[in-house]
Amino acid sequence: MKKALITGINGQDGSYLAEFLLDKGYEVWGILKRNSVAENQTYRLNDIYGHERLKLAYADMLDMASLIQVLQKAQPCEIYNLAAQSHVRISFDQPIYTAQVTGMGTLNLLEAVRLTCPDARIYQASSSEMFGNNIDADGYQRETTPMNPVSPYGCAKVFSYNICRNYRNSYKMYISNGILFNHESPRRGVNFVTNKVAKEAVRIKLGYTDKLVLGNTQATRDWGHAKDYVRAMWMILQHEQADDFVCATGISHSVQYLVDYVFDRLGLDTETQLTTSERYFRPEELHDLKGDAGKAKELLGWTPEYSFEQMMDEMVDHWFDFYEKNPNIRS
Fold this sequence. Notes:
The chain is an alpha/beta fold and 331 residues long. The protein has helices at 12-23, 64-74, 88-93, 95-116, 152-171, 193-205, 226-238, 255-266, 270-273, 294-299, 308-325, and strands at residues 3-7, 27-32, 54-58, 78-81, 121-127, 175-180, 183-184, 212-214, 220-221, 224-225, 244-247, 253-254, 274-276. The mean pLDDT is 96. It holds the Pfam family GDP_Man_Dehyd.
């Protein structure tokens, strides 16, 4: 039986990846960061919590001793590093914490793996935010596009990306970077724009609120479904050689298009029910992201299955279902 360890298992990607690996017969270990409201830590894992092949352990990316302890217990053959402070706007408010967890946390994990199970294959969750506003002449970003991040989060991810490449070359460890573009789902945090739009639009439709407040609606992003992207993570680690891969749909939409699509579906009016606030703008904006996943398609055979519209429909349906099942909750 293969064993996998997932850091950040209780996040959007971690929960989908855990389900995916359990379906493939893996024993899955997951690292949780302890917080004071323990029952909230595993809500994304509710459907698989208690599964006989799911093992959860407390550790922290800034505490290498705790990482070593879990690695010694699990003895994984595959490690997926998904743990991070992953909200870009919040990284401006907490730049030092973001750099420590998202950057130095990766180095702690690599060193812990080197000391305990150096033959394990490691997947590093890299990000399209690393490119910043650099874009190739054809309008796409790919593995060779220069990286020039415009947020503390993006800067921390560039460090993680490079230290993974350094360990791969220096110690001949199997470490691959998945440069993932934006990916969403009903499990996405509601402080991320896709799920914020889906939730607030449903609340407007139900009469719980009367307005959606956003930041920069002209920014464009390449949005895909998290289920497609966790499948890519696994495929990356099955490749015979460690390498770096962009995963993206190759289609970008503006935040305004996102709002228009959801509002049109629900019969809402962007003129009267949408507004913007400086509170949600970044100090330095990232304007456009659109990825070229040609390498992943050619070498791994990966292609996304969800369209943007299918993804947003699923998220809107999720919130209608949520409020139908919880009629006393209006927030």
